[in-house]
């Protein structure tokens, strides 16, 4: 095995991560046409409603009962980066903020000291299918930022920078830079309390598309970073001279340039990279702190305050037939 490759591992629904990342899940669901409630216009018989994570008929309801997705639930102590390549997500939260995003948009939410939010997957089309694909990435917060004020930032697809490479044979490689830098091109600035905000932490979140047969060199970065390349769609490729099947992750040495040679099908990949925070991590479900005492305090505060309560009419709130938008807690509205 090449010295650039530390480990190769298979991918499932939830992908292994390394500090400063806590979690990464790949959601891909072929939802049918929608009903008037924006749920799937199909029978839910045989599904474990409220806990439906089984891929049945090509889709899952997750924790939703009428609309697929994740009804109101709390977070504290980390950030969610939700990258939606296809379909739509409806966001609502305990601060009264809301949004609809998808088709290449990313929402970057800093949970900080505590927020409730819902992430529903509305079937907005009643006359055709409603496919959805997204990646949800959890990025840890350092101890100094775990109790910051919660908020979210939208990275709209029109604003996310792309880098395009054409190899010697004219085959295209496209990199969407959600966080970090590539070939002198920088991502939109992340939220200010994020570990990604300081360039010294070398956070990178990239999605990569390689044409059949394309070749590209993933550039080296600093030594000592955690770097994983997730090859989630395609057939085969060569990574640093090692043949890799699709649906595998590759833990790479961060200070080695790595040559990627794609096989005969278009390949899709995700890169996560960053300097470790290197602090204790104590996680209990949706809460990530540094000590057991902080987790106990989090439960106590959530029981007392519900992190602001729930200002929406139901826990599976959707936004009708609006277009893409974001309404922030301060009243600012963005529309796309």
From TrEMBL:
Stretches assigned to the Pirin N-terminal domain: 53-139
Q: Does the keyword Metal-binding apply?
A: yes
Boundaries of every Pirin C-terminal domain copy: 206-308
Kindly give the InterPro entries that the UniProt entry links to this protein.
Answer: Pirin, Pirin_C_dom, Pirin_N_dom, RmlC-like_jellyroll, RmlC_Cupin_sf
Q: How is the cofactor bound?
A: Binds 1 Fe cation per subunit.
Q: Which Pfam families match?
A: Pirin, Pirin_C
Q: Which UniProt keywords apply?
A: Iron, Metal-binding
Chain segments carrying region Disordered: 313-336
In this chain, Fe cation is annotated as bound at 73, 75, 117, 119
User: Which cofactors does the annotated protein need, by name?
Assistant: Fe cation
Q: Tell me the protein family, please.
A: Belongs to the pirin family.
The name this protein goes by in its record:
Pirin-related protein
Q: Which organism is it from?
A: Gynuella sunshinyii YC6258
Q: Supply the source organism's classification.
A: Bacteria, Pseudomonadati, Pseudomonadota, Gammaproteobacteria, Oceanospirillales
